[in-house]
Specification:
With 382 residues, the chain is an alpha+beta fold. The chain has 12 helices and 14 strands.
């Protein structure tokens, strides 16, 4: 692929949500529909396959080490720039921005086309960590904050970048006894004949912080839940298809709605279409068992009869409105699953969240507030 800015089709303006496991090959667990626009693959063609198979060969060792470091460091809201293979061989490799957050037993994030400019700077400024792996992209994407230390060393990058040594690195000639004593999951590096680090291998790493990832429908006012990564905080059978605000206390609903509106406004590309838009961090009280947010919400002022009659469709009636009300998932199926719990019946749970917008939805990472490790420097929405 040529340098930046040469792609003018839809792939330049989309981002898709991706989830990979903790295995050495980072196998796809989930990919949203926009992956077809960006990389040419249908979601079913990726799920179960190694994500690292799409990485450029020159960057493979460093990306694999980054995969290990992200999981072992239990990182959240990190951003990396690297090349990924397009399904069409004539398209070659696409320079992508990859976001990653560790969510218990998977890595959750997004993949988008990397374009330098104000939006890229905003994404980088809200990330906890930015890594630029593709050498020619360094001048465009290696943003630093004021408080970040100066990069060392200031010399030009070598033609082939070496993966930095790790305290847990073991050489290929390690004896069998030492290999048996090696800590499970710690990496082993293999070297080429000329001494370069060529590959890294590691066992599947253990589960990390108790977090849950939700994907919300960004095109609905109620933001229904369309994906849940695990049952650690909100049971999947309770959450699926229901409004996200069913799991927010009435006192915090207005605040959380304003946060999601802000993230949606960030996640718009140059054409005004839904895309990625950095990370936002907020804290709120959650109803983990769910509630009927439509029932608990204060009613809108009743319009005058004149306006009501004027705006009513010619064939609308109370039966039509009742049918529309019964078709809403949070008012029918979701409420029956939650046994019609009201806000008074549910003990609130204080949670922290990372919000990010993408072409196919809003990604929300939740954890309980008593988690000991901080998120980092995501943009504070509160």
């Amino acid at each position: 692929m040529s340098r930046l800015g040469d792609m003018e089709d839809t792939s330049s303006y989309v981002s898709f949500i991706g989830i990979v496991d903790f295995s050495e090959d980072a196998r796809w667990v989930f990919a949203s529909e926009s992956c077809t626009d960006l990389l040419g693959f249908e979601p079913y063609e990726l799920v179960g396959k190694p994500a690292l198979d799409l990485v450029h060969p020159d960057e493979f060792p460093e990306v694999k080490k980054m995969h290990y470091d992200t999981i072992s460091g239990d990182k959240a809201a990190t951003l990396a720039y690297l090349r990924m293979r397009h399904k069409d061989p004539y398209r070659g490799y696409v320079l992508c921005a990859i976001s990653r957050t560790v969510v218990y037993d998977v890595l959750v994030g997004s993949v988008s086309f990397a374009t330098p400019g104000a939006k890229a700077m905003h994404n980088a400024s809200t990330a906890n960590e930015v890594t630029v792996i593709t050498p020619f992209a360094v001048p465009d994407f290696e943003f630093r904050r004021w408080s970040d230390p100066s990069p060392m060393p200031p010399s030009p990058l070598p033609p082939m970048r070496k993966v930095p040594e790790s305290p847990t690195t073991s050489e290929p000639d390690t004896s069998s006894e030492e290999k048996e004593k090696k800590k499970p999951g710690s990496p082993t590096y293999k070297k080429t004949a000329d001494g370069r680090l060529d590959a890294i291998t590691f066992d599947r790493l253990p589960n990390q912080s108790i977090r849950v990832a939700l994907i919300l429908d960004r095109f609905s006012i109620q933001c229904p839940v369309i994906y849940v990564s695990n049952d650690l905080l909100i049971p999947t059978t309770v959450a699926m298809g229901r409004s996200f605000y069913d799991f927010v206390t009435p006192q915090d609903e207005k605040k959380v709605r304003s946060w999601i509106d802000a993230v949606k406004s960030w996640g718009v590309n140059e054409r005004g279409s839904p895309s990625d838009g950095g990370f936002g961090h907020g804290r709120f009280n959650a109803c983990v068992s769910g509630r009927d947010s439509n029932k608990d919400r204060l009613p809108d002022p009743t319009p005058s009869r004149h306006h009501r009659d004027r705006d009513r469709a010619p064939h609308s009636n109370h039966r039509d409105r009742d049918r529309e009300r019964s078709s809403h998932p949070s008012r029918k199926d979701g409420r029956s699953r939650a046994h019609s719990l009201s806000s008074d019946d549910v003990a609130p749970c204080s949670v922290e969240a990372i919000f990010s917008a993408h072409s196919d939805g809003i990604l929300v990472i939740l954890r309980t507030f008593n988690e000991s490790r901080p998120w980092g420097r995501t943009a504070n929405l509160a």
